[in-house]
């Protein structure tokens, strides 16, 4: 079966051309003017922008949490992602301290395999680095195609590794050709502040915010960059939110170091004033928390400076009832917010239509860099001959409004309720199949594949 | 007439695909697998890399200097460039202090028009910004398609403008949609050191180097970035050479500012030890001078960090006899060295084959960014449907040696004599015509066109 | 004649002791408990703080300006200084461009000698550095006891020297054992902004402020520090006002450089909101202008960090009628404000009583560091055996209010009208003579001596 | 009993005067010219420098370690200190994890009380901060006169506290009016490197050095400064050794923070090349290790910039036989080197005579700042009326050579064997008693007193 997408304005991270795209099977085979349709299904893209499928490298689907799970399954989550132009996600496997990486991989695969609608991969979160864990790294890189290893500098006793483990992991991951990613906040300081606020009876969502001040992120980012520099292991900071943390990266640049930086769409668009809404602030309880307007400016600038490489979501939705677990105590509010469906359109609307970033930069941070950094390029992340036919058609001028009533994520509130967006995803193709058209999903549960990834490089 | 380039590995700044390219007339019309040849001339690119034509945005051809001229004319210079994979150059028109911009444009056009073999454009160097000059800016941007305005913070009395003029120019250029570029060194300090060295009888080429210490460049770069930030005018630093200057840019990044940075191939590869060779050092007398090994490391890192955007040459060749004008006094050595022909291959060899940068990054800094920053994208700088068919086929494995005996530049020495290079340009196409093949140039004098450029943006 | 000051709490920059001070002639001869009075006049200092006489190293008395003069003569100015606890000042001789240093010295000496009530010295402002000027430097250091050379990076055409002159001057001053001080603002940028505002009809005092944004000072401070580092000449920045400029110094500290920093009392206490008062803002039209609250914080912190070494005034008073010269055009308002009388008490009140600095630090920045940096220590700036008996008795608890009605400066408005001050100078002694007592000055015009200064060092 | 020290050149941190000092009992009562001798013992100080007694705020005497003790007792250690001009030391009480602060205080007091010859105090090292520990802080400050609390960011499982404890401690110490001091190195990274080197059979003293690279100290210093800034608790970094760490402090200065910095004499004078001497390098095995020449430059500059406030020793001597415990494994070498006797003379010789620092600065960092920062000023640290008569007479021109044969410390090697010193301590007075004269100690064991200290301030 083949598809011919006609007359779209095709945008890649470094291209801008009006042309047709011919797809055969799962693959793009030609881009050109007036390509013959043959027996291909023709999709008219006149007036539309044609992008590579979005890649969200930071999501948490069906994630076990305090006896329950994040509310989007691999099915609902990847389907919602497709609605919003994201054709692939990377989720996180969490090692249980005291247990093996492999065991966690099996557990996560059991939930995802045969369930996902869109394509997916996993980062392997190493929460207990020891001699046994060390032996498993090479197999993940060479055989499982899982080449990125997530670490936590917070959540002591559950997820956190100390700096000794971090340096040890970095040396092993470097040796094997992988990448270490990090949740970079100073967990000890945060634990202190949480305990202090609770002891003082300060229990509202606002105190979630006040327990994770900018310094906790700046400090840890600086520390992570120092360890990455010392070991020479490629490093990647997830969900960087603030000026202090980006300045730590900028300072590290003076030592000729390159550490990749991801921010998330919410840190570009929302700010901490939302925590002043009493318990409604729980909708945006996530870690790190939302920051200030000055931080938004810093992040947009960082994208244009080439220092912020990726815009993700850290999608981790919980139903309002689940959020209510923390009604009496902010520290019990499940962390996370729903965004997997909106990242692509929001970044387009605020970034490109808002005049903050170019079309090429949009594709770079939403599609291409995630693919490159995580070892899937050029199969994913661009529109090239031989690439997977993951394609998004977007009408740049169509305005619409986000709402829990209309979104496709399995969560009963929207973090962006009522927000106006300029630019709407019209058609999405995943590996040659029309996934989304006219607001309908045409793919079945299980269509999504696990994508094996290659060894990584610190040069993209 | 059409061309079909078959089976090459096509690399753009964000693409990597094995495919055919079909060219009709001057334009690329299709990229795909197994494109039908029709009556097109077929060029087999199997095993070759296929790049966009290189763009060197910093050259000086036929430049008047002390009663003589730089030794490459627009003919010999652009032809040599083509031999080395560079299909377009941007030269500098120099306003004469006291005279108009337009008069200088006419003078430069007279030398270039009908002479160039490859495509070209001009930056307009503003050396005397006053009320009359101010009135000319808009016309250059809107009508002449000359949107970048070069300034000098050195060469007082000849080319230098002071900071008052700089800020005034920036405000006007910003208003008109242009870009201010700068030779950022502290000319006053340099003039002092030159005079001091001469007074002390220190007259060898080494003292050219010692008269332009790193601080003179770091200081001026910092100052330029500050003025660009204050005015909001997009800025671009030409031929940045050293750690101190790049750190000034990195520091400016913390103020959320983006200033574009160009380095030149020689600053990545050569170092100041060459000035210890007595008068032979005159071959590399240029401004700024070559720096230290630590600066090379900084520049390569800056490329990977996304902070160094362009690799150019500052090509300004002089015959050895011309260089001899300064035998008794370094300050009389004509500044500049020949590199227009070698930039593309040297950057490929040392950058890509040397494992320092990726293929995509190579294209970004050698082709795409110059086109984007200077308003010629996507017509130039990439391989896309509708783009000019400026195409380079390079054999990544062919090794060869640079020499004045074999180069095509009109200069009787090589700054890279005997240097081994891995990767050789085999075929070059300019606007659909085979320009270089088998080491021969097939284009005539005058084929090269003046390319009008668009308004610029600080978002690329 | 002798004096015995009994039972005061004697504070120096590193001492804190309750004791008696015995003065014989002009000199302190003993400090101790229960010193015998002999035939000495006894002054009871119980409950008072006893400080070294304040030194204000930045004043402009009887300064020629646009056909008139700053309104305090050496008589009225030094007398007012004494009233406020400042026993010595350093004024500025301004070389006339095209003329010699010596000629200016003669002119200034003619106005000061035999006129001053308090002690004084001069900085020599070099506004035209050339081969002739260069020859004069050594004589000023060795014979005149004038070892500090002031430069201006602003006021082109009148006072400014360019960077070539600056570097040349620094090398000569270093060779001779002197110090280069600087008014560090980018005059070219400021000239641009002044002209622009005037052209736009923006003529109120507010535009004086808006014509000298922080960047103009930060940039020049960074540039000056770079030149000082390159030449190795000790440097001193006068009237540093803002975060950007102090950060430039802090950044220079990373290169192991030490550059001395002076701020003025007004930059610690007043802010730019005063410019919003229509023409009344003219009272505070000075260069640099008042800054923001965040800058005040930075300056106080800089004092405690040891990076801001001196608090001066840049006292340069003009009668309201003189200020009115700029009623229609801010650029015609004579620059400067009256503060010579209040610096000591204001710094005590806001710094020490306000809990911002220690008593020792107060003496360090108001007395000792000026003496050390400018080569008068230990004769001046401390209370030691053999030091000049320049002594201030201050009641730390007496509250009073500043006003033009009560001040002793020859100016008809107060820049601090109505400001409450905690701490009052009660008695002042200059070289063993009671200068001020009970609010009366007991010294005659001409008592003040010109103090020859020693070669300087960058180690204090 | 009284003493009259005649005609010395008396130097304090801000004074320089030739005069006599009269001592009655333990106290200075007068400073002046030609003071009457009365029945006082007269000491002729003509031609000598007269300094306040040195204070070494970082020593470890009789410190329990692996079943043995550091080789200097409070008797031998404080006596050796007196020989070298140091009249007071501050030692460290180490809390045992799981045990109370008080219990440790009792243990340490038992060893020191009645034993010391010179005066002393203790820092309280908090190695286990919990609810019980928290309750003890106030008592130490208010009743015991122990106002500084030492922390370790290294030595996990023995001395280290985590950042949660650190922040908690800081808040409590701030509340009580104390100061938190820190051994700032990243213990986790160091533990990793030690284990790695041992696993690789790299067991020589050189690997002690290579296990503690600059980054481990820079990182921890930055982190400590961040926590100090966040909590507002005054902070003090002990034994800072390197450029990276001082730059962290300089960067913190930009946030208007002041954190006190101590370096030690060995980091100013010795460098890591000593570790290349096979096992002899064990003599200088200490933590942090010696660094590079560039770090020495940074530290001297830091002193002149006012950012390095104190020069101490971290004196912790071990006999050669004790050092041999680590012959087969660097990690078993007892850490520390003997310096308590030499600090004052070495700093004078290399600092003052070497032209690197002024006489005043010498006193500031060797005497006055330790007294001020740790709450003993003006009783200790200066020469003022009412101050303890702790006085050192030093002949600035006498040259001598350091050696284990002649030193007074109880250790059988010298870390400075054969080093020439210009300037020799001739006479030392402690609280009015001649302690050292003609190379003999005239004080008995037990003369030394425990000095209660006051609440501290971050303004000195
Ligand atoms: Zn996270
Ligand atoms: Zn996450
Ligand atoms: Zn240039
Ligand atoms: Zn050039
Ligand atoms: Zn000034
Ligand atoms: Zn002034
Ligand atoms: Zn330690
Ligand atoms: Zn210690």
Automatic annotation (TrEMBL), chains A, B, C, D:
It comes from the Bacteria. Residues 49-434 form the Amidohydrolase-related domain. The keyword Lipoprotein does not apply. Keywords: Hydrolase, Metal-binding. It holds the Pfam family Amidohydro_1. Belongs to the metallo-dependent hydrolases superfamily. Hydantoinase/dihydropyrimidinase family. InterPro entries: Amidohydro-rel, Hydantoinase/dihydroPyrase, Metal-dep_hydrolase_composite, Metal_Hydrolase, Metallo-dep_Hydrolases_sf. Its cofactor is Zn(2+). It comes from Flaviaesturariibacter amylovorans. This is Dihydropyrimidinase. The gene is hydA.
